[in-house]
Write a structure and sequence with these properties.
Elements (H helix, E strand, L loop, with lengths): L7 E5 L4 H12 L3 E6 L10 E5 L5 H11 L4 E4 L14 H29 L2 E7 L10 H21 L4 E7 L8 H4 L2 H8 L10 H12 L10 E4 L8 H9 L2 H6 L11
Parallel strand pairs: 1-2, 1-4, 2-3, 4-5, 5-6, 6-7
Helix pairs in contact: 1-7, 2-3, 3-4
């Protein structure tokens, strides 16, 4: 038993990719799931109620909270970034990436603090391994995700014991947008082979971690960032040594595994 049966769970960005997997996991745990996004999907997730909302808009968030009603858990999943090097693109584009992935998450938390406090509920953010390692090509996104981990810890301390706040530090995930970062399917599979578990995550696997953090089984967990990355990406030094002696990389990883690409 998860303690989620019959409770309402809101998932932002819940109509595709990781968010869709999170919705499926909570629905499987017996929750009533509400998904929000800026645009109504043509194929909404089965058994999930959709509410249109832009989480960057405080007015939309107030309306979303009213339409959602009493809520047992909130998952802040909406976010992301196209590949964009730090010295390229418009300054406003970088600022909007940070706004979506960090500022909007604070607005979301504020909008749902009251309902979550009343229910003794949980707030879970979807973070990224980019928060704790260099992310060339997605610098603004990674910086925002680093800030999200700090926000998680601060909110957990401020809102305890009524609301538990945690973060899932996700690695690479197979979604319909993977090609933006990895090219065709072969690129994603090659990157996945560099992960100790040998593959990228499926969206529902991220969702199952969110279900755990929202469940009674995690009742003493708050302020945590749970790594869900298949063991993480290998460090660069085995590759550097392998280039010199031809053996260190193979010994370290049991085969010829190249370093993975960027997370999504």
């Amino acid at each position: 038993m998860t303690g989620l049966d019959g409770g309402t769970v809101l998932v932002t960005g819940g109509v595709r990719g990781v968010g869709r997997g999170v919705c499926a996991a909570f629905a499987g745990a017996g929750a009533h799931v509400v998904a929000c996004a800026r645009h109504e999907p043509q194929d909404p997730p089965a058994g999930v109620r959709f509410v249109r909302a832009d989480i960057r808009d405080s007015g939309d968030l107030e309306r979303l909270a009213a339409e959602t009603g009493p809520v047992r858990a909130v998952v802040g999943n909406a976010g992301g970034s196209p590949p964009l090097r730090a010295a390229e693109g418009r300054a406003r584009t970088h600022a909007k990436i940070i706004e979506l992935n960090l500022t909007a998450q604070l607005l979301l938390a504020r909008a749902f603090y009251g309902p979550l406090r009343d229910s003794g509920g949980t707030l879970t953010f979807i973070g990224s391994v980019g928060a704790v390692r260099p992310s060339p090509g997605t610098a603004a996104y990674a910086a925002a995700k680093a800030g999200l981990e700090s926000l998680t810890a601060s909110l957990a301390a401020e809102w305890a014991p009524e609301v538990r706040v945690n973060c899932v530090r996700a690695g690479m995930v197979r979604t319909e947008r993977s090609a933006l970062h990895f090219g065709d399917g072969r690129g994603l599979e090659a990157a996945g082979r560099a992960v100790p578990l040998g593959r990228p995550a499926e969206p529902r696997e991220i969702g199952e971690a969110c279900v755990f953090l929202a469940s009674d089984a995690a009742s003493y967990i708050t302020g945590a960032c749970l790594p869900v990355h298949g063991g993480g990406e290998p460090p660069s030094y085995p590759s550097a040594r392998g280039a010199v002696d031809g053996s260190a990389h193979e010994s370290a990883h049991g085969g010829d595994r190249k370093e993975s690409g960027r997370d999504l």
